[in-house]
Amino acid sequence: MIWIWTMLLVAGLALLVATLVRVLAGGLSDEAPRSGAAGRPVSSRAQMVLEERHMAGELTTQEYERRRAALSEREEAT
Fold first, then answer.
1. What is the DSSP secondary structure assignment for residue 41, as one 8-state letter?
2. Could you give the CA distance from residue 54 to residue 50 in angstroms, rounded to a whole number?
3. Measuring CA to CA, which residue among 35, 64, 31 is closest to residue 50?
4. Of the residues 8, 39, 59, 67, which has the fewest C-beta atoms closer than 10 A?
5. Ramachandran angles phi, psi of 35, nearest 5°
6. Is-contact 67 50, C-beta < 8 A?
7. What is the DSSP code (8-state) at residue 35?
8. Predicted confidence band at 45 (pLDDT cuts at 50, 70, 90)?
């Protein structure tokens, strides 16, 4: 029975440490403004992923531009 309390204590401490690290590294909000490759704010998670994939060489410049335009059109429609 004591091992259950020990496991809960370890899990609680791990969550506490993870939360403290996250707060000290920039806060808990996922809405924090981020900068893209050109220094402009990236408005959505999809755009961030798209930029990351382009920078990693997973997408060609043409494919990146096509998908970025599609995302922009979708955001303007909402």
1. B
2. 6
3. 64
4. 39
5. -105, 140
6. yes
7. B
8. confident
